[in-house]
Amino acid sequence: MQTAPASTQEPEEPSAPPQDAEGLEAILRIVRRYLGMDVAFVSRFREQDRLLELLDDESAGPLHQGQSIPLTEGYCLKVVRGELPQFIPDTSRDAVARQLPATVEIPIGSHLSVPIVLSDAHVYGTLCCFSYEPNQTLDERDVQLLRACAEFIALHFEASARRERDKAYTAATMRAVMAQGAPRIVFQPVYHLPDLRLHGFECLSRFDAEPRRPPDRWFAAAHDAGVGLDLEFQAIRNALAYLDRIPVGPCMNINSSPEMILSGRLLALRESGHDLSRVVLEITEHAVVRDYAALSQALKPLRAEGVTLAVDDAGAGYSSMRHILSLEPDIIKLDMELTHGIDADPKRKALAKGLTSFAHEIGSLVVAEGVETQAELLALARLGVDCAQGYHLDKPLDLAQALERCRGPIEHGRCG
Questions:
Q1: Do 252 and 279 form a contact (C-beta atoms < 8 A)?
Q2: Alpha helices (runs of H) in 51-90, residue ranges in sequence order
Q3: How large is the C-alpha radius of gyration of the chain?
Q4: Which tens digits make up the pLDDT trace of 207-258?
Q5: Does residue 107 lie in a domain region?
Q6: Which residues lie below 8 Å from residue 280, measured CB to CB, with a gap of 6+?
Q7: How far is CA 332 from CA 106, 191, 275, 382, in A?
Q8: Nearest Cα to Cα of residue 63 among 46, 38, 85
Q9: What is the pTM of this model?
Q10: What angle do CA 233, 236, 240 make, to 5 degrees?
Q11: Which of 112, 138, 166 is the last residue of a domain?
Q12: Residue 132 is part of a domain; what is its CATH number?
C-alpha cells in the first residue's frame, strides 16, 4: 500500500467530506457505540498533516471535527506503517503507545485503527476509535468490523474524489474554451406584430468546441464545475461587443441568471461606454430566486442606466408569475411551450390572452418565443401580442446576416 507522504504524485482528493456525510457520521456513531468506545473519527492524510474529517464524540473531549494534527503525531500513521497494532486493548502495555504524548494528554486507554484504502491502493486516511480507559474485551473480530466499515467508507470517498476530479476537469475544459473566445454569439431576430418591423435581436451562445452539446448543457456543466458565472459573464461581454456595430434602433437581449445580477459583476457595464438603453436583460423563468428584494436592489443601478428588464419563459411554471410580480419587468416573454400549437389549442389561447392582458395592464411589452408556423403567428397577432421570434420568422443569424436584416426590407408575410 502507498501512503500519502510516500510520494509527491498524490491522487486528487476531495477537499471536503462527501455530500452524504450525514450517513457516514451515523456509521461512526453506530461503530463507536457497538465497540463501547468514547470517540470515533475518520482522518484524511495530507502531505504534512491529517484532518479529522468526521468525528463522533459524546464526551466533549479535546478533539473536534475539522482539526488538523501533524501527520507524524498520534497513532494513525504508525498503524498504517505497522509500527503499532490495529487494536490495543490497553495502551499502557504497548511500548510504542506509551511513548506517544497523545496517550497521556487525551488520554487514550484503548485504541483501534484501520486504514481507509481507495481502489488505486492510495491510503486516504484511517478509521479510528479509542476509549479513555483500557478495554480488555477488544479482539480481532472488532478489527474485522472496523475494516468492513472502512471499506464501505472508502466507497463514499472514492465517489467524492471522482466527482472532484470530474469538476476539476470540466472547469479546466471551460477555461480553455473561454480562453479561445467562446462562446460565439448569434442573433435571433425579434419582430413587431403585426407588421413585422425589426424590433431587435436576442443574443444566443454557440460553442464550437468538443464535446458537442447544446448551449444550455455547456452552461449547466460550467455551473456544476464552479465556473458558471465566468462563462456567463464572458457570453454577456461577447454579446455586448457587437452592440455598437448594430445600427441604432434594434435592441439587444442578453440572458442573465439571478446569481450573475446579485454578484454585482454586471455593474461594470456602466463603465463600458455602451448605450445601455438598448440592452434588454432577460431573466429566465426557470432560474431560482431566493431573495427578490436583494435582486430588485441589485437591478436598480442597471435600470437607472436604461437597461430594460425581461422575464423569459413566462407561462412555463409558477416561478414566472413570481418573477413578474416581484420584479415588475418591462417585457414578458411567452414560453415556446405556450406558443407551439396555439392556433389550435383554446387553453393555450386563453392563457396567452390572459398573460397579454395582464402585461398590458401593467405597461409591459409581450414577446412570443418559438413561433414556427404562420398559423401560430396569426393567432398571436390576433391576441394582441406585441412581438414574436422563432424559426418561422428567422433562424439565429451571424453578424453579417443580422446587419443585412437591419438594412433590408422584411420579406415575411403580413399578419392579418
A1: yes
A2: 76-81
A3: 31
A4: 999 889 999 999 999 999 999 999 999 999 999 999 999 998 899 999 999 9
A5: yes
A6: 200, 251, 252, 253, 254, 307, 308, 309, 310, 330, 331
A7: 65, 15, 22, 17
A8: 38
A9: 0.73
A10: 140
A11: 166
A12: 3.30.450.40
